[in-house]
Amino acid sequence: MLKASKYMKKGQRLSIITAIFMVIVMLFAMTACDNGTGKQDPTGNPATDPSGEPSDPTGNEGDGQGVSEGDSMKVVFFEIGKADAFLIYNSGATILIDAGEAESAEDILKYMDKKELGTIDYFFITHFDKDHVGGASRIMENKDVKQIYTSNYPKSSGEYDNFKSAVNKKKVPASVLREDTSFDIAGIKIAVDAPLQDVYDEDPSNNSSLIIRISYGEKSFLFMGDAMGERIKEYNATEPEICSVIKMPHHGEYLPGLDELLKKTQPKFAVITSSKELKEAEETNQTLKDHNVQIYKTRKGRVIIETDGKDISVTQK
To answer: What is the pLDDT of residue 68?
Structure first.
């Protein structure tokens, strides 16, 4: 009887050890199921990298590469009405800033197909108005998108829902930018100025726009999204660097702080995304002329700007 009792105690000990081992295995399996794509942002935006920092699956983040001799960077401002979509590319990288309205995707995809651009390394959505995010879902369905960066303010709309569905379906890594961020890829330097507020009292969607500066060698491009007066005031307070080209905020609307912005950034060229039916403000045209800025309007045709990092050329078709 004594031996049987000892045997039972030994068996109980083995059972306890086995149970503990099984619990550890289950916990490990549950952890492994979190594949690192990130947690869901509480605002309802796409997934954010768990570290809180933008991730770069291309492996090029911060590589510090300079401009390659003989290479050039092209920036395409599409003729898609009062909507924003800009394609930036060189021999080593492709970047897309916004995607216009739903029907705009066709123009973007046709151009990319013609240039044999099958991959988008970085896809920025400056904010979630339909004339910026509308074509995004179709772009994701037809191109290999490596990484998406978005503003912090979601917007209830069918276009936004389609965007989220495409992100989940295609399993594209997506990060919400809440702090200023900068990184390099293939000689292209990207600096993103994130909105300071989670929600703005006036024009909350437009004022949540990401402001993006793209530099290549000595030349730089400033994309102002749909920044309104409050957001422009924020950006002016950062003492921005000069730029070669500015994409005017909110389709050429004349806004408070615009004159100061031009004084600080001193662009040589300005691009306005407007349509024949919805033209830019005449006050904006005059302000640009007062600052000796050459104006291009997408309602008059697609604008393509090319630079080798030293010289810059502009064509419009």
So the answer is: 78
Within a domain: 118: yes
Residue 174 identity (one-letter amino acid): A
pLDDT tens-digit map of 220-233: 999 999 999 999 99
Whether 89 is in a domain gets the answer yes
- Going by C-beta distance under 8 Å and a sequence separation of 6 or more, which residues neighbour residue 273? 77, 80, 82, 83, 84, 247, 248, 251, 252, 298
Give the residues across from 96 on adjacent strands.
87, 123
Query: How many residues does this entry show for the chain?
Result: 317
Burial per residue of 180-205, b for 16 or more beta-carbon CB atoms within 10 angstroms, e otherwise: ebebbbbbbbbbbbbbbeeebeebbb
- CB neighbour burial string for 70-96, b if at least 16 within 10 angstroms, e if fewer: eebbebbbbbbbbbbbbbbbbebbbbb
* Residue 115, domain extent: 73-316
Please report whether residue 101 resides in a domain.
yes
Please give the structure tokens belonging to residue 55. Answer: 């991730």
Q: Cα-flanking dihedrals φ and ψ of residue 96, to 5°?
A: -125, 125
Distances (CA, A) of 108 to 91, 190, 246: 18, 21, 21
Residue 266's CATH number: 3.60.15.10
233-243 pLDDT, tens digit each: 999 999 999 99
Report the amino acid identity of residue 201: D
Per-residue pLDDT of 83-122, as tens digits, reads 999 999 999 999 999 999 999 999 999 999 999 999 999 9
In a domain, 138, yes or no: yes
Q: 251-271 in b/e burial notation, b at 16+ Cβ within 10 A?
A: bbbbbebbeebbebbebbbbb
Taking the C-alpha atoms of residue 93 and residue 186, their distance in angstroms, rounded to an integer, is 6
Look at the chain and report how many structural domains it folds into.
1
Tell me the three-class secondary structure of 127-159, residue by residue: CCCHHHHCCHHHHHHHCEECCEEECCCCCCCHH
DSSP 173: -
